[in-house]
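Entry 14. Ran structure prediction on the chain below.
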Amino acid sequence: MVDWLKEVLYFPLASYFRFFASIRLRRWNPRVIVVTGSNGKTTLLHMLEAQIGDKAKYSHHANTSFGIPFDILDLHKKNFSYLGWINLFLEAPFSAFKNSPKEKIYIVEADAYRPGVGKFVGELLRPEVVLWVSTGRTHSMNFDRLVAQGKFKNVEEAIAYEHGYFLEYCSKLAVINGDSELSLRQKDRTKAEVKIVTKEKDLKKFSLTKEGTIFELVETKLTLPYLLPEEIFYSINLCKNAIDYLDIKFDQSFSDLVMPPGRGTIFEGIKDTTLIDSTYNANLGSISVVLKMFADFPEKKKWVVISDMLELGQEEKEEHEKLAEILKKMNFEKIILFGKRTAKYTYEKLKKTDSVISFQKHAELKTYLQENLNGGEAVLFKGSQSTYLEGIIESLLKNKSDAQRLPRRGEFWERMRRHAEL
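Output, structure tokens:
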């Protein structure tokens, strides 16, 4: 299907599934909690699941205008063929009248990734609680036209406004990252009670060890066995606010927490190296906080492998050049860039620096790391999903069974990685 036709049909087709999803949702009538933001949504979803457990249903792997209705209807897209879509189209009316889920709480990760999505999904869900983690340049290419039309000064404002629709449809409680001015500007759009979380007010101490990350909040202290940036504090605090609101006892040990792959997982690597997997996705905001975190990691020999940032549209050059400015201030033993965008924009600003090297082929990057790691290095990998850095990490694992803890497992992703490496 040509791109213009996909664009024209996007919301009409999504509306068909939303209609039947709304029927099932009204019949079910759960308490709806929406988790939204540019970064950190999935982490917060998993934190809520660790606290609430089987009392709630969670929209894992479904955060779009199609994915959320599919999740409500219990529809499963097996492939991207026309036949697959026809089957979903025919199943939707019957799925609306399936027996309702037993859970009384529905926790939904919702992404306002293009104009109209926040309103579209917000109207469907009409959440009781909204947890807004962050605002930044993600999927910014989808918002360029709104800026060009003069509706917003920049894409950040457009993205924040679209997320703000979840506040408009929120009925009881909205908890917002108060250190995001863009998010705060939207708070008057809701009639719900608004709680503001800020680092200065709510975080007492943050520290890293080789085993994990320690967060000390005003009322609690916890240690998580992952390497996480300080900004994860917002997810922890938003989680606690939701748990308190639901009148559930908060487990400060997070004993049942299993972080999704690609979000700071620590692995043992070959040659006594430490590998840190942060490859689930990347934009300038998430890269900058992860680099800041890694700068404080207790290891002398620190390497970073950073791949292209995708879906930036007109901001592509600017964002990759900003990345160069951030890296200039970092004192890493080796900075390794991967991809045509980092080569074109980031490396051009850094190529006179001895510690910086750039690659555009997976095989070359893999060979370089295997041959040049001497032992004892800590290596941070940060990238967007379509750059498939998890395949590089897999080649460096000391224990090959750890590959199951990497993101994008399964035959489909194996095929995509093989294709990318050609």
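The chain has two domains: 3-245, 265-420. Will compare against last week's run tomorrow.
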